[in-house]
Amino acid sequence: MIAGGYSVKVIYGFFKTFSQSKGVSRSIPQEYLNLFDEKYRSEFNSPFTYRSKVSSDVSNFLYKGTYSVVVYKFPLLKNISLEQIVKEKMLDSKASSDVLYSDISQQSYILKYKLDRLNLVSDISLSMRGNNIERVIKNDSVICYSLKFISFSLKIDKDADVDILAQSGTNEDFRGEPVPVNLLFLKRNKSVYFVILAVNDRHHSLTSNFLYELMDI
User: How far is residue 208's CA from residue 216's CA, in Å, rounded to a whole number?
Assistant: First the structure.
């Protein structure tokens, strides 16, 4: 009975993914590129953008072939400051039950994002578990964190399911160890952009303001 139920869920997940997808593009949307300082854009390579009919596109690419970058967009319900939108918690994260996710496997971690229609956003809850957690900057339009993470997640409604989940330890280099990462929220043009930058192996360092310095802010 359990196996049968699992099979039905897998089949449903496949058809739901197929019906909501607009395919994969080997480029970065100009809207996402414009978030970054122009002088760094030539260093972006190996892009994949997962396009959706019902939600925001998810872009995944490398910076200098060494750092993995993911960009996602949340459309805002109303024009309020980023400080009012983003709330942080120091908690462990796990996927919500009975929710279908799509996976993006990085060299140092795995990212899951919910396959569902994205509503307009007024509240984002960020949960983080890891070491050396530092808030680099926080103001009306940008918030940036630096940490070595075990897990982090986002909910666009504090009482709803987890929308985005990242878990470290998918690479032998980081097996069971926290991964250095910068997380950045940027409010622009009635949207909040969420950017993740992580190292791909332990031989490269990551300063707390590394991602912030790449942005066109």
Answer: 17
What is the C-alpha separation between 82 and 186, in angstroms, rounded?
A: 8
Name the phi and psi angles at 99, rounded to 5.
Answer: -120, 135
Q: Supply angle C-alpha 68, 14, 163, rounded to 5.
A: 50
- Phi/psi at 163 (5° precision): -95, -40
The model's pTM: 0.88
**Which amino acid belongs to residue 176?**
G
How many residues appear in the chain? 217
Paired strand residues for 89: 127
* pLDDT, tens only, 88-140: 988 777 777 778 888 998 989 999 998 888 889 999 999 999 999 999 999 99
Nearest in space to 161 (alpha carbons), one of 111, 98, 77, 207:
98
- What's the chain look like in SS3? CHHHHHHHHHHHHHHHHHHHEEEEECCCCHHHHCCECHHHHHHEEEEEEEEECCCCCEEEEEECCCEEEEEEEEEECCCCCHHHHEEEECCCCCCCCCCCEEEEECCCEEEEEECCCCCCECCEEEEEEEEEEEEEEECCCEEEEEEEEEEEEEECCCCCCCCEEEEECCCHHHCCCCEEEEEEEEEECCEEEEEEEEECCCCCCCCCCHHHHHECC
* Cβ(190)–Cβ(130) below 8 Å: no
Backbone angles phi, psi at 211, to 5 degrees: -65, -45
